[in-house]
């Protein structure tokens, strides 16, 4: 269902303008299927001048790339560029790329062939079209991109977006320009991303960049660099801005959010490192100092009691025994009772080869602890089928883990070997493609069977749903998500407002609606709407 870019990141495919709310979720699903994303209207560009060079952005990969697109656009907008949703109008085309699987990179090579033809037929009266490759693929394959496809004018890695105006100026002179230097401290903390859809009710907020975990299968540490966190003050500023704009759900985003560590405040730099839970380990030494994720989550959740807060993706090893994050989730009505716990495999032997830092038993103990701490929690996970050396017995252990945990949401993929990773240097990609395919199909079938059972348990219950917009399949129905991040579809009807005594009205995007669930599948709940309400009122009456 998705291309991975670190645990728990949702996929993105081709798209012109990244929407929010239901359009963003549709965009992500379309991307996973290799289809073009939707092209909704772009918001007006304040201060854009007639004759400004027009830039067209396409995003591939994960939610982090959605965030990167917004950062790149914010930088270009401040430097006099205008945004277009029409490819034919563009003076500059920038592809924000993914490098996590071979299929993701092949999509970019294919897209470049299309852009090559577009360049060739561009009228001579217009300035030459400039094409840029941004993000993880730029970082991994700079030389190959510049030499294999002469049509690429600009190559910029994830830490080089500030340099885009200079790189594009160099390209204007007819030269190729590249900057793929990785930084130890770049977080773009001072750049408030430009939301790419007017009126969006959901948003991603990047809280950190890079990853230090060095899982043996993962390219992310090599394309996004070492882990570093944004100052909490800049994150809170961005969330407040989103609240003022009417955003009703914010997802805190990072490769490993629960190892967040803000070192910007001197007085907290000597704080002791939290201990790991029993059965978990890391490849790096404990990191002292800094304000941690619990403090950030606490502060963010206080900004707006009517704004839902989610986060992705945490690493199982970074839920310490004192469970302060879990306690906070349980206590705060606006922190969603939903956790992404990327397992990757159900076999301790494979987990060791992956360098995940835990055993099957330790992972299951964490799952039980989470469910004891947060009653009714919704769980999601990532799984890789056919990793190096995986036997049929290893695979069946993953199947049994899916059955035992019964996740509500799952992201499952066949293993794709990546250069530079530890697996590429030390292990053999020895599971045949047809075996990977068969195992993946069995994992997907098992997941769907168990998810259907998990969701069926919600039938008859009332669920608070944040309305995102009309259902894609029927204009007479609305679509939204419950606290557990499961899609809920219900009829668009006149509803009483639980908070007011006024006339009934129809729910709008951004409204909270109480819905009684009448049926469930592995991916969707259906129900009847009861009333419009608020997040605080629903929590008080629960």
From TrEMBL:
Entry GO CC: cytosol; mitochondrion
Gene3D superfamilies named in the record: Methylthiotransferase, N-terminal domain, tm_1862 like domain
One GO term (biological process): regulation of protein metabolic process
Required cofactor names: [4Fe-4S] cluster
Keyword Iron-sulfur (UniProt): yes
Coiled-coil segments on the chain, per record: none
Enzyme class: transferase
Residue stretches making up the Radical SAM core domain: 197-453
Chain ranges of the MTTase N-terminal domain: 53-173
Biased composition (Pro residues): 37-47
Sequence ranges assigned to domain TRAM in this UniProt record: 456-531
Record-linked PROSITE patterns: MTTASE_N, MTTASE_RADICAL, RADICAL_SAM, TRAM
SMART domains, alphabetized: Elp3 (SM00729)
GO MF annotation: an example: 4 iron, 4 sulfur cluster binding
Known EC number: 2.8.4.3
Keywords: 4Fe-4S, Iron, Iron-sulfur, Metal-binding, S-adenosyl-L-methionine
Superkingdom of this protein's organism: Eukaryota
Pfam families with a match to the protein in the record: Radical_SAM, TRAM, UPF0004
Region (Disordered): 33-52
Reactions the enzyme catalyzes: N(6)-dimethylallyladenosine(37) in tRNA + (sulfur carrier)-SH + AH2 + 2 S-adenosyl-L-methionine = 2-methylsulfanyl-N(6)-dimethylallyladenosine(37) in tRNA + (sulfur carrier)-H + 5'-deoxyadenosine + L-methionine + A + S-adenosyl-L-homocysteine + 2 H(+)
Family annotation (NCBIfam families): miaB-methiolase, MiaB/RimO family radical SAM methylthiotransferase
Family stated for the protein in its record: Belongs to the methylthiotransferase family. MiaB subfamily.
Protein's name according to its UniProt entry: Mitochondrial tRNA methylthiotransferase CDK5RAP1
Organism: Platysteira castanea
Gene that encodes the chain: Cdk5rap1
């Amino acid at each position: 269902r998705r291309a991975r870019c670190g645990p728990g990141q949702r996929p993105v495919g081709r798209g012109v303008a990244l929407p929010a709310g239901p359009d963003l979720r549709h965009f992500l699903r379309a991307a996973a299927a290799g289809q073009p994303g939707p092209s909704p209207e772009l918001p007006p560009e304040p201060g854009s001048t007639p004759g400004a060079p027009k830039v067209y952005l396409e995003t591939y990969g994960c939610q982090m790339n959605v965030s990167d697109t917004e950062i790149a656009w914010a930088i270009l907008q401040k430097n006099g560029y205008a945004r277009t949703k029409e490819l034919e109008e563009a003076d500059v085309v920038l592809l924000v790329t993914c490098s996590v699987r071979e299929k993701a990179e092949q999509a970019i090579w294919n897209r470049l062939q299309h852009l090559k033809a577009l360049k060739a037929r561009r009228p001579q009266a217009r300035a030459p079209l400039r094409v840029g490759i941004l993000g993880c693929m730029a970082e991994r394959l700079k030389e190959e991109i510049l030499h294999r496809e002469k049509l690429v004018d600009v190559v910029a890695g994830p830490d080089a977006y500030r340099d885009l105006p200079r790189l594009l100026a160099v390209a204007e002179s007819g030269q190729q320009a590249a900057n793929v230097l990785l930084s130890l401290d770049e977080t773009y903390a001072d750049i408030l991303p430009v939301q790419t859809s007017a009126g969006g009710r959901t948003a991603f907020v990047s809280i950190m960049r890079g990853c230090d975990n060095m899982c043996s299968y993962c390219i992310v540490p090599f394309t996004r660099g070492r882990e570093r966190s944004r100052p909490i003050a800049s994150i809170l500023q961005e969330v407040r801005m989103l609240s003022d704009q009417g955003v009703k759900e914010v997802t805190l985003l990072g490769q490993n959010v629960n190892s967040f560590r803000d070192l910007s405040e001197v007085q907290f730099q000597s704080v002791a490192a939290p201990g790991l839970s029993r059965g978990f380990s890391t490849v790096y030494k404990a990191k002292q100092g800094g304000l941690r994720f619990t403090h950030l989550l606490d502060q963010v959740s206080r900004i707006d009691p009517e704004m839902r807060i989610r986060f992705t993706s945490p690493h199982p090893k970074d839920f310490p025994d004192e469970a302060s994050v879990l306690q906070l989730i349980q206590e705060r009505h606006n922190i969603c009772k939903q956790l992404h716990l990327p397992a990757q495999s159900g076999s301790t032997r494979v987990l060791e080869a992956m360098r995940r830092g835990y055993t099957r038993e330790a992972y299951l103990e964490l799952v039980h602890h989470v469910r004891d701490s947060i009653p009714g929690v919704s769980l999601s996970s990532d799984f890789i089928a056919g990793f190096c050396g995986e036997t049929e017995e290893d695979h069946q252990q993953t199947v049994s883990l899916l059955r035992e945990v019964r996740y509500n949401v799952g992201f499952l993929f066949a293993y794709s070997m990546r250069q530079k990773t530890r697996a590429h240097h030390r292990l053999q990609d020895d599971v045949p493609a047809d075996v990977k395919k068969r195992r993946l199909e069995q994992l997907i079938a098992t997941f769907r069977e168990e998810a259907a059972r998990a969701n069926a348990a919600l039938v008859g219950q009332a669920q608070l749903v944040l309305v995102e917009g009309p259902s894609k399949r029927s204009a007479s129905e609305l679509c939204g998500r419950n606290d557990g991040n499961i899609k809920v579809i219900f009829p668009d009807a006149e509803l009483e407002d639980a908070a007011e005594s006024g006339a009934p009205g129809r729910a709008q995007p951004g409204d909270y609606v109480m819905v009684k669930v009448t049926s469930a599948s592995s991916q969707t709940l259906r129900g009847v709407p009861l009333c419009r309400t608020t997040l605080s009122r629903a929590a008080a009456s629960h």
